[in-house]
Design a protein that fits this description.
Chain A has 320 residues and is of the alpha+beta class. Chain A is globular and about 65 Å long. Chain A starts with a helix and ends in a 22-residue tail after the last strand. Chains A and B meet through strand 1, strand 2, helix 2, strand 3 and strand 4 of A and strand 1, strand 2, helix 2, strand 3 and strand 4 of B. Strand 2 of chain A pairs antiparallel with strand 1 of chain B.
Chain lengths: 320, 320
């Protein structure tokens, strides 16, 4: 048995054991029992060192985040998470690093009842590919396609925090103390809105998770649904920490920075959804769907505002 | 839309369309309809440039092989392939390379009715992670656990070809002409024994695919089943091309070199399996299972032979 076999064994002995996994890690493939009469939702995301995370990220945060970004995709489909596989590439075997990585991964997996059912650990540049699968009853799945004129546009949680956290991490924003820690935690340990996704089954007409920035991701809903939207920048939910950071015109970060992993979704106006509707997290109405295509951003007085382009960086505007 | 979005779109418009994929590439997750009363078999494998393949490998071969090694795992479970996801990491966007990669991938996917249902294309060091899913009726799945004393040990196809192909590719074996081309093709375009895996349902007591070399992989069956085996080196199936290469004691390559992606399986002695039993490929009996643990290799006269250790390299014996 080589060192990579040992790693596999290490991951194989951790975490949730589900009744619908007759055979987990340790054969040529896992064997799983899908529930009758439900759809399987499947998604995969890769995080590369130097591209999606700084090489200095705490290993536990990386383990957590690699799973979180995938659970966020399931949340956006209204799916209940069940199984994960992990393809982990490591330049060398560092047991302390692996212990921490697994700790972060399994902490989140256990919170959502997810069993790691397979994986491949290889020597190579540091990168993590996680695939997750979940269940959603047919006709209850949330897609990007169903937004209709008149629907209200909502987001969960607060926006722009991860973008500010990245600026702090990269030394482009000088800000310390508990609010700065909050912003950094929002970057490294995003909260996949799994409960909200389940609560939106049968309620939302369209949903997406916000990984590339609100304007960009909302754009996918609008395109897929063949509609447009009017958005109110003064209603964007900004955290106290973001406001305390002193960033000028923080709404621009909320609109264009990525990595928040909140949900953006649409509901019929007569659904009467409010922040008190028990989705397990705050939700805020930020606009409404229109028949006219495109996004029109405005302030509370109705004055048009131009959101910065995708990938816009508040702190280094030359960046792509 | 950035260049990586374009790639996603390119992959999304190719290949098989299955009825059990209500929603494929293009939302936060794919939605799939698993068949009633079958198990899902799930496996994932990563190939890294410089580790699992030479950076100069033709892109079409890489696309083919990344899927093939995963289909081989499904074959070893007796599962019928259905769905794949692809996490592709590229240092830069090279359209000619991508065209060839997709050609190789989809050629094999179409042969086995596999639909690409999701993926993630990112900028990073060249690597390919494919996950495949297939179906197998409960109680029909092949695992590593069921070998019993007295069972016969079989392999499909021929062994050692990929190891010789690697030696040719790396300039350690001087050999040219059609037989050399055959050996190289065995390395770059292994044949996943999907049909054989399906044919072995209800017949084989244990199965594994040979990726790390026969001795190593058979060892997994023996350990999982709590048994041992006596193996006959003179019965190992060697291709005419391998024999023509003039390699001394080619059986050692057949036992210890990897990457052949043949199946090794066990069947009860009274099953009467022979090469003519319609598994779609040659099968050869190479030994039998014993109650005594361990592997005992011998020649046709019963003289014990010591197989080289795992990872042994016929051409560079200092290699790990």
């Amino acid at each position: 048995m080589n060192e990579f076999d040992l790693i596999r064994r290490y991951f194989a002995e951790r975490g949730v054991r589900r009744d619908d996994v007759p055979l987990g890690i340790g054969d040529d493939a896992a064997l799983l029992t899908p529930p009758p009469s439900q759809l399987l939702a499947v998604t995969v995301d890769t995080l590369h060192s130097g591209v999606h995370f700084d090489a200095g990220i705490p290993a536990a945060d990386l383990g957590y985040k690699a799973l979180a970004v995938n659970l966020s995709d399931l949340a956006a489909m209204g799916a209940e998470p069940a199984w994960a596989t992990l393809a982990l590439s490591l330049p060398q075997v560092d047991e302390a690093w692996l212990t921490a990585f697994a700790e972060g991964f399994f902490a989140l997996a256990e919170r959502h009842g997810v069993q790691l059912v397979g994986g491949d650990t290889t020597r190579g540049p540091l990168s993590v590919t996680v695939q997750v699968q979940g269940f959603v009853p047919q006709e209850k799945a949330l897609t990007r396609r169903g937004a209709r004129p008149g629907d209200h546009v909502f987001v969960t949680g607060s926006l722009g925090d991860a973008g500010a956290g990245l600026a702090i991490e990269q030394g482009r924003l000088e800000f310390t103390g508990p609010p700065a820690d909050f912003l950094l935690a929002r970057l490294h340990r995003p909260t996949p809105r799994v409960g909200a996704g389940l609560g939106l089954r049968g309620l939302a007409t369209a949903a997406i998770d916000i990984s590339d920035g609100l304007a960009q991701d909302l754009g996918h809903i609008l395109t897929a649904s063949g509609v447009g939207a009017v958005l109110d920048i003064d209603h964007l939910p900004l955290s106290n920490a973001l406001l305390a950071s002193g960033i000028d015109r923080a709404w621009r970060l909320a609109v264009s920075a990525g990595d928040d992993y909140e949900l953006c979704f649409t509901v019929p106006a007569d659904a009467g959804l409010s922040v008190s509707d028990g989705l397990g997290c705050p939700v805020t109405c930020i606009g409404r769907i229109t028949a006219e295509p495109g996004q029109r951003w405005q302030d509370v007085a109705g004055v048009p505002c131009e959101p910065p382009p995708r990938g816009w960086d508040h702190f280094a505007q030359g960046e792509a």
